[in-house]
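## retry 2 of 3
previous attempt timed out at serialization; input unchanged, resubmitting
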Amino acid sequence: MSMTKSLTRSRHNKMIAGVCGGLAEYFGWDPTLVRVGYVLASVLFAGFPGLLVYIILALVIPQR
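## retry succeeded, writing output
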């Protein structure tokens, strides 16, 4: 039996909508590091519209 991984929003590592937690679970990373990286990218890169990307991901990535 083959188990396929699918990208879903996290229910356990959820802060706001579970997007960063879901990405961390999918890639096997630490959720805190994903959140810190996301915030740093949002703050440091003026061309990275962090809030808009997060809202789009929350709408596109299905809940588990």
